[in-house]
Design a protein that fits this description.
Layout (H helix, E strand, L loop, with lengths): L8 H26 L4 H17 L6 E4 L4 H11 L2 H20 L11 H23 L20 H9 L4 H20 L4 H4 L3 H19 L19 H5 L13 H28 L8 H18 L4 E4 H9 L6 H15 L2 H4 L4 H15 L2 H9 L2 H16 L2 H19 L18 E4 L3 E2 L4 H10 L5 E5 L5 E2 L1 H13 L6 E5 L10
Parallel strand pairs: 3-5, 4-6, 5-7
Antiparallel strand pairs: 1-2
Helix pairs in contact: 1-2, 1-3, 1-9, 1-13, 1-14, 2-12, 2-14, 3-11, 4-11, 4-12, 5-6, 5-16, 5-18, 5-19, 7-9, 7-16, 11-12, 11-13, 13-16, 17-18, 18-19, 20-21
Subcellular location: Membrane
Organism: Hymenobacter luteus
Protein name: MFS superfamily sulfate permease-like transporter
């Protein structure tokens, strides 16, 4: 693990560029779907990258406007009557998140089973693939991160794909196929050619797609890509244009009870989405770093307060951008920070170039991200773990595909809890606290039955173990140790050398964790 983020600039800057290319159309699209000013999403993305990345304790998570909040914002605009009033509610929601962080409510994230988190990741991968097919073939002008099954235009995920395949735009489809071929080539050959690893495949895709689009304009006008299938960034040519970007809260909204109801809804939903996202990001992190969840709530609170004050949408930690960051080789918070700087730069200087990027090229990037989140090996792994891991995993996927992220995770959690309660039936639980022994290691002895319900307290004890110590984790008397606890212990084993901890496991089965 690098001692300083500046040591990994060679990986973080290209990853930040990839995240920027993914985030730009998402920020614009979510603004459109939310009924907010177009630049509200860009402002939230800039704050998420430039500010939240440094306040957060996560090295790989990327924050910005979230598709899961679009329906809430649309409803809030109707309830409160203006976007300025919604900004006031966003500020209050940020304050609520600060309170949750101080109250140490971040521990809620540890109570989501691994099977449900993996199901959420796989479902997001499938949704990315299904939702990007219309953009990939140039047959849909819907916004770019519509993650719900029922869309605001009356269609659903599957009908939108069917409709898209009946109205393919040849130019967009050609650019999409070329872009996908480039990404596949880059993924395969960059592992063997050091020079290719220095250039992100997404950058090559963007440059080639711009060139191909320009070539089609001249050589084959019939294949010209329509404007609605290109990135659309407003033009800022003078200081007056820049100052008009910002919208400020309506402070009189603080006197209306409805504002606080909206604020509470935004604050709770944004916090839950954030905790789910950082839990998933930690599982994808090859270095198995653990995000301090209470600090993450504080960081999101700061971000939402600033976003509300400057005219931006509410934000969360976002798994789509975060997974793109990880897949692009991001190592530290520098990649998220750099993506925020690029969003700011694009807003000020790069509008003419960026507005030439076909959405089908960016869809190809997201298709690759989606596939990596829902690889067939993930399904095989869960199947081999047995029904108590596989069934919540599959139920979560299906529920998210047919509803939305939070509803799907809730349904999967209910199934997971059933198995947890079944495993804990008539089983007492105890966890002996570590106590330093004279001349011996710190001895952590597990009880006879260790379930997922015990995961949070075990993780807490492991995180509080002093550095440079000897530790014995003893499960020799345990007749049952839940997979989630085994995974938490394995993550601790992988990170123990970084803390100088000499670890011995007794009666603990080692399990495979993502990234290893």
């Amino acid at each position: 693990m690098p001692s300083s983020p500046w040591q990994t600039l060679g990986k973080d800057l290209p990853a930040g560029l990839v995240v920027f290319l993914v985030a730009l159309p998402l920020c614009l699209g979510i603004s459109l779907a939310s009924g907010a000013p177009l630049l509200a999403g860009i402002i939230a993305g800039i704050i998420g990258g430039v500010v939240v990345s440094w306040v957060s304790g996560s090295q790989l998570s990327v924050s910005g406007p979230a598709a899961g909040l679009t329906a809430i914002i649309l409803s809030a605009l109707s309830t409160l009557g203006s976007f300025e009033a919604v900004l006031a509610a966003t500020v209050i929601a940020g304050v609520l998140q600060l309170v949750l962080g101080v109250a140490k409510a971040g521990i809620i994230g540890l109570y989501f089973p691994t099977s449900v988190i993996r199901g959420m990741l796989a479902a997001i991968g499938l949704i990315l693939i299904l939702k990007q097919i219309p953009h990939f073939v140039g047959a849909d002008s819907d916004y770019f991160e519509d993650m719900d099954f029922l869309q605001f235009d009356g269609q659903n995920t599957f009908s939108a794909v069917t409709s898209a395949l009946g109205g393919v735009s040849a130019g967009s489809a050609l650019v999409g196929l070329v872009s996908l071929a480039i990404l596949l080539f880059w993924d395969t050959f960059s592992k063997h050619v050091a020079l290719l690893r220095l250039v992100p495949g997404a950058l090559v895709v963007v440059l080639v797609s711009i060139g191909l689009n320009s070539l089609l304009d001249v050589a084959a006008p019939v294949l010209r890509i329509r404007p609605e299938h290109l990135v659309s960034l407003p033009s800022i040519t003078a200081w007056q244009d820049f100052t008009r970007v910002f919208t400020f809260p309506d402070w009189s909204a603080f006197q209306r009870p409805a504002t606080y109801t909206v604020a509470f809804t935004i604050g709770i939903v944004a916090s839950l989405e954030t905790l789910l996202s950082v839990e998933a990001v930690d599982k994808l992190d090859p270095l198995k770093r653990v995000t301090p969840t209470n600090r993450e709530l504080l960081a999101q609170g700061v971000g939402n307060i600033l976003s509300g004050l400057l005219g931006g949408l509410p934000m969360t930690a976002v798994i789509v951008r975060s997974s793109a960051n990880i897949n692009a080789g991001g190592q530290t918070r520098i990649s998220a920070f750099f993506h925020g700087l690029l969003l700011l730069t694009s807003l000020l200087f790069l509008e003419p170039v960026l507005n030439r990027i076909p959405l089908s090229a960016l869809a190809a990037v997201l298709l690759m991200v989606g596939f990596k989140l829902t690889k067939p090996t993930l399904y095989r792994t869960q199947w081999k773990l047995g029904w108590q891991q596989f069934l919540p995993f599959v139920v979560t996927i299906i529920a998210i595909l047919l509803t939305d992220l939070l509803k799907g995770v809730t349904i999967g959690l209910v199934v997971g809890i059933f198995y947890i309660l079944k495993a804990n039936y008539e089983s007492a639980y105890f966890l002996s606290r570590p106590a330093a022994q004279v001349g011996g290691p710190i001895h952590l002895k597990l009880s006879e039955q260790v379930s997922f319900l015990n995961k949070a307290s075990i993780v807490k004890v492991l995180n509080e173990l002093p550095p440079n110590s000897q530790v014995l984790i003893d499960g020799s008397d345990s007749s049952f140790i839940d997979y989630d606890v085994l995974e938490a212990i394995e993550n601790f084993r992988l990170s123990a050398p970084e803390r100088g901890i000499d670890l011995e496991l007794r009666g603990i089965q080692q399990v495979h964790v993502l990234g290893h």
